[in-house]
Automatic annotation (TrEMBL):
GO cellular component labels: mitochondrial inner membrane
Encoding gene, per UniProt annotation: Maip1
GO molecular function: ribosome binding
Protein name in the entry: MAIP1 protein
Superkingdom as given in the UniProt entry: Eukaryota
GO BP, sorted A to Z: protein insertion into mitochondrial inner membrane from matrix
Length: 250
């Protein structure tokens, strides 16, 4: 189920669909809830593959190690199209717009919001999530089984891969300007989900220490859309206007 806030009247200036890759984008200024950090700094976009070591860290770590590798191949045309839209954002909206900083902030915001959803602390999401999406979440979270709710939470270190989806630039008839960027996340979660969960979910047996000690992790996906108004005088804040956890939040 897609939980999404309607952008209102608007004429599209640009749109890129299903894009991944690296580039430069703007600072993400999402004011977190009181229980979270006071600021969400932004980080650089990772390469097309990220590794997560399943064994202990440091020179004292013993036993065999397993790594989860997530690889996605980027379409050159899609990559160039996305870069063009990012250029438009920098030229017409924000000269300091940086993809690396935006991606870092999006990952941290995703981790904070997903954990609050898992903990049913929706009252702390007012500053992060649009009112429309928050209302839909309140109607859904209470109905989820514990296993599905646990699977919503994503630790920042468990995010295996992050990429952009839709990139949109538009304005309405009153001259109000918006930019929305859909981010896709792949993350590991140890919730007690059935192995046959359909969709994009994958199951890994990750070994810690030795073969007699195993922890099963699911590789899950989530889509979060971030929207910011660039009208002169508007707050430089990004708001989450769409939340999808396929096969979990439905």
């Amino acid at each position: 189920m897609a939980l999404r806030a309607a952008p209102g009247r608007g004429r599209w200036l640009a749109r890129a669909l299903t894009v991944s890759g690296a580039a430069r984008v703007p600072p993400l200024l999402l004011p977190p809830p009181a229980a979270a950090a006071s600021a969400l700094p932004l980080a650089g976009l990772r390469p097309a593959a990220r590794f997560a070591s399943s064994a202990g860290q440091g020179p004292e770590a013993e036993g065999p190690q397993r790594r989860v590798l997530v690889v996605r191949i980027t379409s050159p045309i899609a990559w160039l199209r996305t870069r063009f839209y990012y250029l438009l954002i920098r030229v017409y909206f924000d000269q300091e717009f940086s993809v690396e900083e935006f991606t870092r902030g999006a990952k941290q915001a995703f981790s904070v919001v997903s954990k609050l959803l898992s903990q049913r602390k929706l009252d702390l999401l007012d500053e992060l999530v649009s009112a429309e999406v928050l209302q839909a979440l309140k109607e859904k979270i209470s109905l989820l089984p514990d296993s599905h709710r646990d699977a919503l939470a994503a630790d920042i270190d468990a995010i295996m891969y992050t990429t952009e989806g839709d990139v949109r630039i538009y304005y309405d008839d009153d001259g109000i300007k918006f930019v929305s960027i859909l981010m896709r996340f792949w993350y590991l979660n140890g919730a007690n989900l059935p192995d046959e969960v359909p969709g994009e979910t994958k199951v890994f047996q990750i070994v810690f220490g030795d073969e007699s000690t195993k922890e099963k992790r699911h590789l899950l996906t989530a889509n979060y859309e971030f929207q910011r108004e660039f009208t002169e005088g508007a707050k430089p804040d990004w708001t989450i206007t769409r939340i999808e956890h396929p096969r979990l939040l439905e």
